[in-house]
Amino acid sequence: EVQLVQSGAEVKKPGESLKISCKGSGYSFPNYWIGWVRQMPGKGLEWMGIIFPADSDTRYSPSFQGQVTISADRSISTAYLQWSSLKASDTAMYYCARCQAYGSGTCGFDYWGQGTLVTVSS
Amino acid sequence: QLVLTQSPSASASLGASVKLTCTLSSGHSSYAIAWHQQRPEKGPRYLMKLNSDGSHIKGDGIPDRFSGSSSGAERYLTISSLQSEDEADYYCQTWGNVIHVFGGGTKLTVL
After folding, report:
1. What is the secondary structure of A32-76 as a DSSP string?
2. pLDDT 10s digits, A61-110
3. Residues of A with CB below 8 A from B32's CB?
4. Would you call B84 helix, strand, or coil by DSSP?
5. Are A109 and B100 inside 8 Å of each other by CB?
6. Dmax (CA) of chain B
7. Cα A88 from Cα B20, distance rounded (Å)
8. pLDDT on residue B99
């Protein structure tokens, strides 16, 4: 059974750093892209970026380039999303999702993590 | 620019059918999409991948009441025999070469 299990909720202050995780199981973790998706309170889903754990090839949405860092450790089947200096506007739910390859370098999300709530408040 | 457009809301009665629409931007009518369901206070759940020819592959455990179809740049999600548990937000998603896009979502109310 494919599962993506994310780390727990976080409460941080502006300016602090944070790294959240997403552990995959039930499939060959290195060989599937993993994406990160933001959902701000009461809003829709926004694609942040995606990583291929086998070689750490990473692509970012222009909206999030330079704002976050996506990484992965294939030895422990875990992907990460990190911030070096949080802002109040980073308060949101963050989801990871596995990306099923559909050929020609494309893929679509087919399994989701349960989400990690990040709250940034002074 | 790759954009997906969804109506913000829809409603239908318990036991009835409803058809939700996701429209691809000009020049992208051949693109496949995925439909995802998000129940209140829950995470998204993959429903299906829907191709431009209307063929679709559903996720694990998705009931037969959920089906997809396509016409030109429009992608549809039809839910038949509506149940109260179908009240949720429905998002379409598409992808290009390492770019992913979500529609704004449709909030479905079951009356």
Report:
1. SEEEEEEE-TT--EEEEEEEETTTTEEEE-TTTTTT-EEEEEGGG
2. 999 999 999 999 999 999 999 999 999 999 999 999 999 888 777 888 99
3. 102, 108
4. helix
5. yes
6. 40
7. 35
8. 87
Residue B80, classed as helix, strand or coil, is coil
At A29, is the secondary structure helix, strand, or coil?
helix
Tell me whether residue B15 is exposed, middle or buried, using C-beta atoms within 10 angstroms of its C-beta: 0 to 12, 13 to 18, 19 or more. exposed
Q: Could you give the CA distance from residue A4 to residue A21 in angstroms, rounded to a whole number?
A: 10
Residue A6 contacts residue A20 (beta carbons within 8 Å): yes
The answer for residues whose C-beta is within 8 angstroms of residue A111's C-beta and 6 or more apart is: A2, A3, A4, A97, A98, B46
Residue B7 reports pLDDT greater than 90: yes
Q: Is A105 on the interface with B (CB under 8 A)?
A: yes
One-letter identity of residue B91? Y
Three-state DSSP class for B97?
A: coil
Cβ atoms of A117 and A23 within 8 Å: the answer is no
Task: Find all residues with CB under 8 Å of B63, minimum gap 6, and list them.
Answer: none
| Cβ contacts from A onto B, under 8 A | 68
Q: CA A96, A101, A107, A109 torsion: positive or negative?
A: negative
Q: Which of A115, A78, A85 lies closest to A12, judged by CA?
A: A85
- For residue B21, the one-letter residue type is T
Which tokens is B87 given?
Answer: 């009240």
